[in-house]
Amino acid sequence: MHRLHWKPMTWSLVVFTACTFVVCVVYGLLAPRGLHTPQLLESILPGFQWLSPISFILGLVESFLYGAYAGLVYTPIHNFFVRRFSAQGRG
Question: pLDDT 10s digit of each residue in the chain, 91 long?
Fold first, then answer.
């Protein structure tokens, strides 16, 4: 197993969460009302309300920040366990 670098991991998750947010909004705009739930985005993203330009930008920024948080927290946890289990395998 190899260690992860925090920058590519964080940026990967930032782009993933931002793209997922945009896909959810586009789906919500295109799908019939009964097939999507804007309440889901409203409950996960504080301050987000379906749908205004300001709210879209707020949701995008919050999605970006969630991705950054995930990358910055996950990477050191992963690397800790890689070091721990690598050390056990040699001993």
Answer: 799 999 999 999 999 999 999 999 999 999 998 888 889 999 999 999 999 999 999 999 999 999 999 999 999 999 999 999 988 766 4
Spell out the residues 6+ positions from residue 85 whose beta carbon is closer than 8 angstroms to its own: 1
Q: Tell how far CA 14 is from the center of its chain.
A: 6
Q: Compute the distance between CA of residue 61 and CA of residue 23 in angstroms, rounded to an integer.
A: 15
User: Helices 6-30 and 53-90: crossing angle, nearest 10°?
Assistant: 140
Which of 86, 65, 82, 79 shows the shortest CA–CA distance to 6?
Answer: 79
Stated pTM of the model: 0.86
CA 34, 37, 42 angle in degrees (round to 5)?
A: 155
Structure tokens given for 65: 């920040």
Torsion sign (Cα): 56, 28, 45, 23: negative
